[in-house]
Amino acid sequence: MSISIAVDAMGGDHGVSVTVPASLKALSKFSDISIVLVGQQALIEKELAKHQYDASRIKVHHAEQVVEMDELPSKALRNKRQSSMRLALNLVKDDEANACVSAGNTGALMAVSKFVLKTLPGIDRPAICTSMPTMKGHVHVLDLGANVGADGESLAQFAIMGSVLAKAVDNNANPRVGLLNIGEEEIKGHQRIKDANEILKNSKINYIGYVEGDEIYKGDVDIVSCDGFDGNVALKASEGVAKMISFYLKEAFNKNLLTKLVALISYPVLKAFKEKVDPRRYNGASFLGLRKIVIKSHGGADAFSFYHAIAEARLEVIKNVPDLIAHEVKALLDTQSVVEKASQANTEQQA
Amino acid sequence: MSISIAVDAMGGDHGVSVTVPASLKALSKFSDISIVLVGQQALIEKELAKHQYDASRIKVHHAEQVVEMDELPSKALRNKRQSSMRLALNLVKDDEANACVSAGNTGALMAVSKFVLKTLPGIDRPAICTSMPTMKGHVHVLDLGANVGADGESLAQFAIMGSVLAKAVDNNANPRVGLLNIGEEEIKGHQRIKDANEILKNSKINYIGYVEGDEIYKGDVDIVSCDGFDGNVALKASEGVAKMISFYLKEAFNKNLLTKLVALISYPVLKAFKEKVDPRRYNGASFLGLRKIVIKSHGGADAFSFYHAIAEARLEVIKNVPDLIAHEVKALLDTQSVVEKASQANTEQQA
């Protein structure tokens, strides 16, 4: 199997200085992939010249324009038809690449991906899904901001899509799926969450019910489905706390000469600890619900981090995630229509 | 000034074994307070007998019933009129105590507080406000779960109430207030957040605009106003991440004999670090918008942690927080009614 990955070389805060070395690292790591670097040819070639690489597995596809990190999605869609982001997605649409990886503007990448690649049958809204470390492994959380005010059906679709992803990429036969909610009994959650709860209780997935924010990290749930606003708040708040803790840990070890000496002695322990929670290893959010594979890297990703996003793209190609999702969502829709017909028949009988 | 604090001695996961020692610690720390321990007399006296204390500043008020931690708020309200929680709040209503502190069931405490103490004029819904550490100090976040689906006006009231609290308890003359939102430009936030944004732009408080989840912890905002669902998700997710990080840090230092030795050497540094982010120091959430002071302690609080909730109650009594809030909310309502009248006059003129 030969997998071709289109990399938006211009996206992210650092552009080619990150995307090119990360692509070369991926090529050396995975013998089954080739990469198309999409972006300003001169810049990419200048960066490539700094490295040793197998030229037969890398191509440069020139793109005149760049989508800015703060550009409005609607403007990027309308005015940036020659951007590296758009052309990378076009390659995927035209089957010249199997997946696209970009560290560009999230809103624009989602808007252009939806427009160019389209959603799978039955999916109204694609979702952004990322994985995060837990006390026992990792968890997939979606949506992280593509949808604000998703209804119950969308939340149920997110749950199914996440379940398919976990089955495929984690080789987890029966992933546990939860719905993000809060614990206050009588005011529990929004109507949409209750609606999704009803749909999921009748689905074939391993639905375990409501989970609260802290349970995301306990390791007892494999997929957490939530509205994009809530997911974004949970993810960003988590990032914020992690950064604050790391800040105070550094501060304590940097306080004076003695503490610096302790830091030196503790270095291997602190290193082992940091590797466990290193967010760079979890870089690469999947846009689920599209007909093809798109992976969004964090804008501030370094080469190690961007490499992980490419690795995620490769894995989803091998597992053929979009087809698996299409299959499961069709099954869900069929079940729902059976349930609806049954309930309709029931109502008619009673009438 | 003599401040009387009614402590729901039965509330929380640990009951009198936490609330009694914490109360005695508060008495020895603050010479200006006295405490009424409300709950099962025999149990309280048994616990008191284990300690040395000044009997002139502590009273026991017997309560037959206890509100369970998982009891529905409506049931607690209806069936537990002789509970320690209810009687402690009655003491505050009857001016026999200046504030109530409870580690009991949050939903029940909010429902009973609203019923017994009532909200301030102009306030539809009280909010739960807690403080959390940041990279530069601390931040107040509200609401944390009392309101799901708060409208723009409520979010604006939360902002004002938080601002009043920060001014009073932090001696911060001009606290910076933000509205929790997500960063995706075109789908930015719910309508209620945009409505609150408009109200706050025209208010007298130091409103700095939208903040994202990670900005809660950066130290550049003093109050974050949000819907109860969002605040609860942000807080719980933050707790979850912090616990996970602490879990992996312990694991790294406990790995083998050598790392345990390193832990021993690092002990003072790790201790200094932990003190900085110790959630126990931030225990004690304020129910803002009520006519009197109610402080909710974490249910799992230990004595050190519960003591901090009592200290918060004392401070809010000294600063007279409810009156300050009443004053500011009235000013906001007056401004709004002026704005509405002006806009109405304008519309009529145009018509």
From TrEMBL, chains A, B:
Pfam families (UniProt xref): FA_synthesis (PF02504)
Coiled coil regions in record: none
Pathway of action: Lipid metabolism; phospholipid metabolism
Subcellular localization, as worded in the UniProt entry: Cytoplasm
Gene Ontology MF term list: phosphate:acyl-[acyl carrier protein] acyltransferase activity
InterPro entries: FA_synthesis, Phospholipid_synth_PlsX-like
GO cellular component terms listed in the entry, alphabetical order: cytoplasm
EC code: 2.3.1.274
GO terms for biological process, alphabetical: fatty acid biosynthetic process; phospholipid biosynthetic process
Catalytic reaction(s) noted: a fatty acyl-[ACP] + phosphate = an acyl phosphate + holo-[ACP]
Enzyme type, top EC level: transferase
Keywords: Acyltransferase, Cytoplasm, Lipid biosynthesis, Lipid metabolism, Phospholipid biosynthesis, Phospholipid metabolism, Transferase
Family: Belongs to the PlsX family.
Subunit structure: Homodimer. Probably interacts with PlsY.
Its biological purpose: Catalyzes the reversible formation of acyl-phosphate (acyl-PO(4)) from acyl-[acyl-carrier-protein] (acyl-ACP). This enzyme utilizes acyl-ACP as fatty acyl donor, but not acyl-CoA.
Name of the molecule in the record: Phosphate acyltransferase
UniProt organism field: Hydrogenovibrio marinus
Recorded name of the encoding gene: plsX
